[in-house]
Amino acid sequence: MSEGTGTDSGYEVVSRWYAGLGGFFTAVASAVLAFFVGGLVVVATGHDPFAAYKAIFSGTGLSWFFPWVQGDERFSAALDLQQTLIITTPLMLTALAVAFAFRCGMFNIGGQGQYFVGLLTALYLGHVFVGMPRPLHVLVCCVGAILGGAIWAGIAGFLKAAFGAHEVISTIMLNWIALWVGKYFVELGGWMQGSEPDVPRSYDVADSAKLWPIWGALQPLHAGIFIALFSLVVYHFLLNRTTLGYEVRAVGFNPEAARYGGINVSKNYILAMAISGAFAGLAGSVDILGWKFHQAINDYDVSFVGFIGIAVALLGRNKAVGILFAALLFGALQVGTSPRQLSGTDFPPELATNLSTMIQALIILFVGAELLVVYAWNARKKMGFGGSTTPRIKPQEL
Amino acid sequence: MAEAPLLELKGITKRFPGVVANDGVDFDLRKGEVHALLGENGAGKSTLMNILYGLYHPDEGEFRLNGKPLRINSPREAIDAGIGMVHQHFMLIPVMTVAENIVLAAEPTRGPFLDEGNAEERVRELSERFGLAVRPDAFVERISVGMQQRVEILKALYRGAEILILDEPTAVLTPQESAELFEIITSLKGEGKSIIFITHKLNEVLEIADRITVLRRGKTIDTVPREGATEEGLARLMVGREVILRVDKSPAQPGHPLLVVENLVVDDERGLECVRGISFEVRAGEIVGIAGVDGNGQSELIDAITGLRPARSGKITVNNREVTGDSPRECLDAGVGHIPEDRQVRGLVLDFTLAENIALHDYREEPDSKHGWLFPKRLTARARNLLKEFDVRGGGPETRAGALSGGNQQKVIVAREVSRDPSVLVAAQPTRGLDVGAIEFVHRRLVEERDEGRGILLVSFELDEILSLSDRILVLYEGNIVAEYGPDVSEEEIGLAMLGGKREATAA
Asked: In this complex, do B17 and A392 lie within 8 Å of one another by their Cβ atoms?
């Protein structure tokens, strides 16, 4: 009675604050725990985990942010940081692809395929329209990649809306189609093969289609990072400040209530998948226009941005800010453990990539396990062991 | 007070985060009495009984059985102590026979095999002793809800229950079935069983209970004998203020038809014909009640009118505009408001805020949005006004809908639907699970909307609700309208028609 009609009750405020803080806290705790377990593995291989992590950290270039790092050290840190940010850029976008579909109640595992489709579309457009003014050419390539990714993911959305085909199955199948068709294009004699007849590699994008370098000289950070950061903002506003986002969220939370409310659920499945694919397609274009410039046949086998995007979205809790930091963590980890960054004395370089993959997997495991912790917490309370002030947490609030 | 109580609950306190569900509750049960536990939803009745049945552990307080202290940590221990509970939702296995269900977990065996004959014999014996008339060899899925409830009662008796807890037993029954249940309760009492009867229905309490304990906000308010108790008095104890139980309304002054349904045929999910060619109209300024037992085509009829399910044939007209086959959006735009049957599944997005839920139909229109841009502040402002007008408690515009109590959730839905100014308001089970105070609110509001000139189609399984609100009553039985009555029809007559009796009478 005492709580008025105008404001939230104290309990609501506290529990929401707790859930919000808990979300941040458990994400960080998952990461810390993963690094700890990873450290045990380093010990098991007979190396010093502190030295290994120090080497990994210095390989990420994040020390550039420390003002006391000066001289040569600062110079090499800058080079590493450029690498880290180049890798982080597409991760933000593929994570958005997962997050957007997720908010509509779907699991888009097809980020990788949508990424390839966007990449190849941008590559093609970047190659054929030679002589176009640079801003226009870049724009054409990016829009093409967005549409390519959107259509590719939209197929899965359509199959779900029209026939009830589960998006997990259809996006996985679309991944393989994109991969093998993509390989076929750049294969010897392929439609997109470059000028060297014995090299299974595509042609290059024209200079007019390349994204502007903004920092560094060797392999400079490119303007794609602004595209990714801008996309985070777009994601946030699209979801929370437009009628489209309202519909997507309503369908994601409760399709039956959405339908009752007059929302076309099928349309939203297709649209949400398409927008989701647009982010992944854009990731492909920033990579090809920013630093790759061409696609070789074996590039397909070492690219996992679409899949790492799932982990980034999970750790970032489908929120724009969360995705920013989660992408930076995964990007840094990838660069810091790449064999060329580590000397054999700290950790065998050939094992370093495995360590990185392992830590990523552990983070996902712990983030997932947190749901178990929440259930255990609530169950404990239900059994009557809990104190009277413990708030009930719902998994989706975290 | 010479008689010592069979069971005593003293100072039971149970806290949940943010609420005290039971706050020092005292309750006692004498041998061979029916003791009603009366209270609004959320008053703590079910919590108290779940504690007694071993599903929850109290934070404070003690039990005494026959004067001896008792600890109950699980339903198993409750059963061993002679306490049986019939839950609101039955826990029966549909593909097994009545006898198999009853002996489950305590089967008579012959060697390693179930002694089917013995089981049936023992069930038949119990059934006859208490006048339950249950056939032990019938399959549970084939028998009526009322019968299933008797099976649950038998199950408790079979396990040796001396104390029987009935949790809102009449919620799922027709009036005839309720009357039969009361006979069974009387016969159980005659055999020396003691019964705790949980309800929020006042008329039932006065009919069956020997003593009545009223809970409000987790506290025992009073325990009174039935003699001298009145509905008004009990309602005051329950709610804590004067409640107007009779719906105050003037005779309807129907105007032009707003909703016209002609020869409507609707199929269910399995493609079976559920609404079989019915025709009726709802005019401006009248409440038309659809009475009937659950599952006679009500849901399909509502879904067809609101565009949520296609009609196979026939015609639906709202405000002289045909809406047959239209989308839910088009039906909304034609002027149909809909208070849905299930507020948590359909009526609300529980993870949305109240402001977002209130915008569920209007988010695409100004002032909520413009050119696809949503204005959250305007949503909030509109919600704040509506929440105040409809007296929604327990949260503000930014509160998650799932955090509200059922009654307040329903108020949010009513606020949303009414504020859209619909011509036709379809109210499906608008007070299901609500307490007296909230029911009073919803009923008053529906009458007000009628007086504003809307046409209201009320679908309810509660005969009381239909009778007290409707200006005309249609009885739906197996997808047909089998009878139409004015507002002054007797409960018995409608009850008979609801079971199909009327149709045979007219056919003959």
From this structure: yes
